[in-house]
Amino acid sequence: MNSNVTHVPFVSFKPLEKEMKSEIENAFNRVFENSWYIGGNEDKKFEEEFAKYCETKYCVGVGNGLDSLMISLKALGIGSGDEVIVPANTFIATALAVTYTGAKVVLVDPDIETYNIDVNKIEEKITQKTKAIIPVHLYGQPCKMDEIMKIANDHKLYVIEDCAQAHGAIYKGKRVGSFGNAAGFSFYPGKNLGALGDAGALVTNDEKIATKARAIGNYGSDYKYHHIYQGNNSRLDEIQAAILCEKLKCLDEVNNNRATTAKKYLEGICNPKISLPKFIENVKPVWHVFAIRCEERDRLEKYLNEKGIATNKHYPIPIHLQKCYEDLGYNKGDFPAAEYISETELSIPMYYGMTDKEINYVIEKVNEFS
Ligand SMILES: *Cc1c(COP(=O)(O)O)cnc(C)c1O
Q1: In what order do the strands lie in the sheet with 158-162?
Q2: 180-239: pLDDT as tens digits
Q3: Which ligand 1 atom minimizes the distance to the CA of 138?
Q4: 8 A C-beta contact, residue 207 and residue 179
Q5: How many Cβ atoms from other residues are within 10 Å of residue 228's Cβ?
Q6: 8 A C-beta contact, residue 297 and residue 305
Q7: Average pLDDT over the chain, rounded to an integer
Q8: Residue closest by Cα to atom 14 of ligand 1
Q9: Quick one: which atom of ligand 1 is closest to the CA of 136?
Q10: Residue 4: what pLDDT?
């Protein structure tokens, strides 16, 4: 097979942006004509539409995904002296959101098959101080929410879902983000639903949490110049909200396109040196990342890069071995699954609008690796 492709980027925004050029320009112009940039109708409209999309009652727009989690935790009253359970294999933001509230991060090793938090290892980490669990639907794969909600109910813990990589993913017929007390989303440009800059939102079914979160994100004020919390400045600006409204309309199409690419990878990649991603029953993942595993990961990475295929590692250093978390006192060997993933995981190109030529080229080169 001669695919005639010499370069496949890891991610490209171009295919979607080409299709949406006029909608995006109109959204920008709408806000610009209005001359109102923060806390206006576009934010309100996006919040209504995104809450509906997530099958939740409320949505509060914030500045980014990290803040969506931190503000959710603060709105639940979590802070200094509390402990929060976080998977050991996630982006650093999940842990930082906890740290910024003053609470302590308690890590749990992931399950090597799904890469998500190992539900059998949560209970052993629960103490008198534990207040919440943050399941992360990593790479767009829903966590085992039934098991997690049962543990949380048994121990009276809050659940804050980290949905930064899982916009629209479905677990047993329901959208992720609708299971816990609150859920955080990032609209960083590279996420499945991406703004043209930093943006985020939290969703919840609890009116009190929504109201408190909105106040915290707006300098802790319930009305102008009246501050009931020492809040943050974290709001979703009108231009990003207007663009997100347009992009939300095609989120399902974007996710389906990713799923089609994932299916082609799953059917086409066949190499005894490569492990393909697995997902649990009764879910619809949204393939934020297509994560393969290889014992000779670094050699595979170099080989693919030389063939013009861009790759990434999610994540090369697990949280417990990051310099910034030295103070947690963890050592190498403490989270074997997270460490194994960090040494063997490789993410291959995945984005809306990949061409068959590109997909086939990736499959061909991965299969030729020996
Ligand atoms: C991207 C991401 C975040 C943080 O989102 P930002 O918008 O970059 O702050 C949090 N958690 C996970 C799992 C992410 O992938």
Answers
A1: 58-62, 200-204, 182-186, 158-162, 130-133, 83-87, 104-108
A2: 999 999 999 999 999 999 999 999 999 999 999 999 999 999 999 999 999 999 999 999
A3: 13
A4: no
A5: 12
A6: no
A7: 97
A8: 164
A9: 13
A10: 63
Spacing, Cα 314 to ligand 1 middle (Å): 12
**Does a cis peptide bond (omega within 30 degrees of 0) precede residue 315?**
yes
Residue 1 banded pLDDT, cuts 50, 70, 90: very low
> Would you say residue 3 has pLDDT above 90?
no
Mean pLDDT of 125-141: 98
141 in ligand 1 pocket by Cβ < 6 Å?
A: no
DSSP label at residue 277: P
Any idea which residue has 């095609």 for tokens? 250
**What are the structure tokens assigned to 161, written together?**
């879902």
Q: How far is CA 39 from CA 128, 199, 209, 360, in A?
A: 40, 14, 19, 46
pLDDT at 2 over 80: no
Q: What residues are paired with 183 via a beta bridge?
A: 161, 203
Q: Does any ligand 1 atom lie closer than 6 A to the CB of residue 90?
A: yes
DSSP type of residue 35: T
Please give the pLDDT value at position 279. Answer: 85
Residues belonging to the chain: 370
